[in-house]
Write a structure and sequence with these properties.
Helices cover 80% and strands 0% of the residues. The protein is mainly alpha-helical and 197 residues long.
């Protein structure tokens, strides 16, 4: 989904040569959580809280790390928006992990995912013509908002259903971010090779 390299995006890719690393780490976090939710047949309420909390916390830390590591060469407003989304996910993850319960997971988790999804959707729309990640942020924002909207409807069905909804969103997002990270890595290598020639 990441934009192909063009002369306009080549400069941004050169400046963000290391951007693929946090993108792939984010993808790995999401895919590991998604795999846990698929293969965990009977999670307890406490297990749901810890698994979901660690996923949200790790996702938030990766977003904050991506801003600090790469400087996010898409403008100061983009960096602040992504850092804020990371902070929301980190706080949500701590709350869900420390206060395990279906109601907490379904409401606080949904609120955190919804706010982070809205921030990413805004970021993608705001940087549509300037960022190689704009389309990915838009898709990730829609996935986050969709997961947030669905979670509260599964509160009464218990931990397995809640983890299934959150894990489904994580798997879809993980595949998206894997493709984006691999594309960024490939394109950054191509830009580096062109710069040498």
């Amino acid at each position: 989904m990441t934009l192909p390299v063009s002369p306009r995006t080549a400069t941004a890719l050169t400046a963000a040569a290391d951007l693929w690393k946090p993108v792939l780490v984010r993808a790995a976090v999401a895919l590991v959580f998604g795999a846990v939710t698929v293969f965990w047949a009977a999670p307890s309420v406490a297990g749901m809280g810890w698994a979901g909390g660690l996923y949200l916390l790790a996702s938030g830390v990766v977003l904050i790390w991506s801003v600090k590591k790469t400087g996010l060469p898409h403008g100061a407003a983009a960096a602040k928006t992504l850092a804020a989304a990371g902070a929301v996910l980190t706080g949500t993850g701590a709350a869900v992990g420390l206060l395990p319960g279906s109601l907490v997971f379904g409401t606080v988790g949904a609120l955190g995912l919804g706010l982070a999804g809205a921030a990413e959707l805004y970021l993608g729309l705001a940087t549509r013509r300037r960022s190689v990640l704009a389309r990915d942020w838009i898709a990730s924002g829609v996935i986050g908002l969709g997961t947030a909207v669905a979670l509260p409807f599964f509160i009464d069905l218990g931990p397995h259903a809640l983890l299934g909804v959150a894990g489904g969103g994580a798997i879809i997002g993980g595949v998206l971010w894997t493709l984006a990270g691999l594309t960024l890595r490939h394109d950054a290598r191509g830009v580096s090779a062109e710069a040498v020639n």
